[in-house]
Amino acid sequence: MDGKAITRFAEKIDLVENGCWRWTADDNTNNGYGRFSHNGKPWVAHRWVWEAINGPVPEGLVLDHFRHPQDGCIGPLCVNPHHVKPVTQRENVLRGNSPSAHNARKTVCSKGHPYDRRDSRGQRRCSTCQAAYSRARYAAKVAARRSADHVGQLLAPLLPSPASRPLTLVETS
Ligand SMILES: [Zn+2]
Ligand SMILES: [Zn+2]
Questions:
Q1: DSSP 8-state assignment for residue 121
Q2: Helices marked H in the chain
Q3: 58 CA to centre of ligand 2 in angstroms
Q4: Is the peptide bond before 56 cis (omega within 30 degrees of 0)?
Q5: Which of 107, 124, 134, 172 shows the smallest number of beta carbons within 10 Å?
Q6: Same domain, 20 and 68
């Protein structure tokens, strides 16, 4: 196995609480699947790691994210080789394993928490991530206000007020 490539691969993964390996190189996805290049060749990320461990996917078979939805695999962006298995293309199609079909069926958010509510537009949401998001937004607001105050205090002595520092003409000889 190519240790350097494995390290480079591992650096692009977040370990999700439910056991999924989430591909994080989001600008590097292909039809919803992670993409990884190795020796100048583009690979579907989950296939690359599966083959690095198990050898080539048998002729005529494709890798299927089989753990959904009952096990809560996050789906196409999961590259955990234990969350996919080789199946026939026909089986894969019958199971509706395209990224969009998978998303429609998904029961967990991208961090692996169960979806437990819907927002005003009917999108499924996870309250754990939503709470974390609003906490982060509030903290950012407070920090921004504090730093504005702080900068204001630092600048105050440097800003002459017209009343206290009238312009004076200096006589030159
Ligand atoms: Zn998974
Ligand atoms: Zn979540």
A1: T
A2: 3-10, 45-54, 89-94, 99-105, 127-155
A3: 35
A4: no
A5: 172
A6: yes
Bridge partners, 30 (sequence order): 33
* Chain length of the chain: 173
Are residues 121 and 41 located together in one domain of the fold?
no
**pLDDT score of 6:** 85
158 in any annotated domain: no
Which ligand is the nearest neighbour of the Cα of 76?
1
Task: Say how many C-beta atoms besides its own lie within 10 A of residue 8's C-beta.
Answer: 13
Residues 84 and 125 both lie in one domain: no
Residues 49 and 99 in one domain: yes
111-167 confidence digits (pLDDT tens): 888 889 888 888 888 899 889 888 888 888 887 777 777 666 666 666 555 554 444
pTM exceeds cut of 0.70: no
- Which-ligand-closest: CA of 83? 1
25 C-alpha to ligand 1 centroid (Å): 16
